[in-house]
């Protein structure tokens, strides 16, 4: 049988329709499409795809199970390596990871590994309600700070080894960026809650409303009897550009805008949390978060949503699928543009005019691509005199974050780098403080869900080795 | 879930509650704040700590009804529960090197000023307090302030109680009369704090203001609470809520505080209708 040169398409909600609702965009493979896609896998001996996966899922093994129609078997293969398959199948940048290494991809389109992973996880969640096998408790307690992807992964791996794990979460709901950052239309929150529930079945406790560094310190966690601590507290403070007008009404950080919509459900009409529903919205930045913010603004009823990015389409750091989806939905890409000023409304005749102080325009300057920087990305160079104003009533700054100082400031002996990221040994996640491990954005600065999961996994293994050695003495 | 162990109505729009939250009570200090949600699907709102009892594990909050959330909260009774209560957040009020202090509170801001005044009293400082209200009916915590102040001045806008006028009048009088304050600490409406700063600046008396901007997470993640202080962007939740009053851009803070005025009005009306129906 000849190999289909193209990936089987995943059914999606039609662009025009989905641009106005918060339901999930991609609908997922049917069992028939999944089997057909699995049959494209060459099952090659050297398995390059596995090396492309930050948590080393045994990809050809699970795809073989799919081929055989043994979807639960496929799930079991994935779950040996990943605690959050339904999440990763949706949000991983597969095109730069597993799928970029696929042998089939040399000649044709690579196997749709991400789509298959998503299918398998969803199939399991819908069809398997069997009891899980509980590990034998080993009597040791580990604290995990933050319930985002790194914390959930670390907690899951340790719980499966018999540790008594407690996750401390600052917000009122577990999930971290998976619940406050990534929108419902890309990652339904029921999926995240399901993954958290699975962890709870393994005996993981989740304590919400605890801000480590404020409510309790890391040293106090040790005093309370935890023998190791994993810090996966996330990236933290949003960055702003430092241009005039960033404090005008209607200017948000992407974190604030997305938190209002996702965590606080401000997109629902009866929400108690307000959100500005702009008509002309500019999102500054080109990453996944910027795409999420832009597509959320569109769904909140905007007429025009612009991505303002200082490099070209080729340099956009966002996942390819997100950019394509955004384009299909009608997001306008103002590329090679850099904001220089935000302009506010000011009624000189009435200083009590409620519109005063609201953003009404964004002055941008055109850019050209110059010499590559140290990372090899071509540097944007501003074209003098090319400024013009875009009419906007909402601006969302999505230009990254800097680490949160709360833990660093209250933990003696925990070293951070000049950016404020926690310094760790890469192979283990070990920090400068004994018994404390860290991973995810708190270490690297803003990165991806799967890299954070990989770090959580690495740390879980190292914590197990550390405590095993300690108790063997 | 967090239990309301005590509730006291201080005036028609201001309510005091003791909330059972032992982990927060253990750490809370004057000047810090908490964030709460009344119910599932509720909004997160910051409230400054108005007191704490470490032994009983309770934290005192005092709030004014301004929107839907505070109205829902005020409708809760003793023995009932609220959904979420997290803290203590922000930095405590600094007290180092202060021997003589003037605390200037306005309206419900007096609720937050009180634990600060009490803290200075505990440390053996000379405490002068000036508290201002619109009228006699809105007066709160007079006895408590009396107990921790070496000198207390009560002002009302309409003269229905204490002296008539704004808080800056007696503040200026005391300064002119030669009182040497190491620091003035002011907590209240933005416009009041702006004028307190304008009063103390000519005499160059260090002045701390307590900012209470719109917030969501309270841990530095959203940046919604940003302020311009000394030309730099600061986050009230992690860098504050106390700031050097001489450096705060009050006009910007006032503009930002009005961002959801329309929404708040609508929510308040919605809630009024709701509770009228229920109470009937």
Topology:
The complex is a heterodimer of chains A (473) and B (280).
Chain A: H1 15-18, H2 31-38, H3 48-51, H4 59-67, H5 71-81, H6 85-91, H7 98-101, H8 104-107, H9 113-127, E1 141-145, H10 149-160, E2 164-168, H11 177-180, H12 189-201, E3 205-207, H13 218-223, E4 228-231, E5 237-238, E6 251-253, H14 254-261, E7 280-284, H15 288-299, E8 304-309, H16 320-329, E9 332-335, E10 337-344, E11 359-372, E12 378-382, E13 388-391, E14 394-397, E15 401-402, H17 405-410, E16 436-438, H18 441-444, H19 449-472
Parallel strand pairs in A: 1-2, 1-4, 2-3, 4-16, 6-14, 7-8, 7-14, 8-9
Antiparallel strand pairs in A: 5-15, 10-11, 11-12, 11-13
Chain B: E1 2-11, E2 14-20, H1 22-27, E3 33-37, E4 45-48, E5 51-53, E6 58-64, H2 68-74, E7 81-82, E8 84-89, E9 100-106, H3 109-122, E10 126-133, H4 142-148, E11 151-156, E12 163-164, H5 168-176, E13 183-187, H6 190-200, E14 207-210, E15 226-229, E16 232-235, H7 236-239, E17 242-244, H8 250-257, H9 261-279
Parallel strand pairs in B: 9-10, 9-13, 10-11, 11-12, 13-14
Antiparallel strand pairs in B: 1-2, 1-7, 2-6, 3-4, 3-8, 5-6, 14-17, 15-16
Helix pairs in contact in B: 2-9, 5-6
Describe the structure.
The complex is a heterodimer of chains A (473) and B (280). By secondary structure, chain A is an alpha/beta fold. Chain A has three domains: 15-127, Alpha-helical ferredoxin (Fumarate Reductase Iron-sulfur Protein, Chain B, domain 2); 141-236 and 403-472, FAD/NAD(P)-binding domain; 240-401, FAD/NAD(P)-binding domain, CATH 3.50.50. Chain A has helices at 15-18, 31-38, 48-51, 59-67, 71-81, 85-91, 98-101, 104-107, 113-127, 149-160, 177-180, 189-201, 218-223, 254-261, 288-299, 320-329, 405-410, 441-444, 449-472, and strands at residues 141-145, 164-168, 205-207, 228-231, 237-238, 251-253, 280-284, 304-309, 332-335, 337-344, 359-372, 378-382, 388-391, 394-397, 401-402, 436-438. Chain B has 280 residues and is an alpha/beta fold. Chain B folds into two domains: 2-89, Elongation Factor Tu (Ef-tu), domain 3 (Beta Barrel), CATH 2.40.30; 93-210, Nucleotide-binding domain of ferredoxin-NADP reductase (FNR) module (Rossmann fold, 3-Layer(aba) Sandwich). Helices cover 30% and strands 31% of the residues of chain B. Chain B contains nine helices and 17 strands. Chain B has helices at 22-27, 68-74, 109-122, 142-148, 168-176, 190-200, 236-239, 250-257, 261-279, and strands spanning 2-11, 14-20, 33-37, 45-48, 51-53, 58-64, 81-82, 84-89, 100-106, 126-133, 151-156, 163-164, 183-187, 207-210, 226-229, 232-235, 242-244. In chain B, helix 2 (68-74) runs parallel beside helix 9 (261-279) and helix 5 packs parallel to helix 6. Chain B is globular and about 55 Å long. The A-B interface holds A 170-172, 180, 208-211, 214-216, 234, 236-238, 240, 242, 246-250, 252-253, 255-256, 259-260, 264-265, 271-274, 276, 354, 356-357, 404-406 and B 23-24, 27, 37, 41-44, 68-69, 83-89, 216-224, 226-228, 233, 235, 238, 249, 252, 255-256, 258-264, 267.
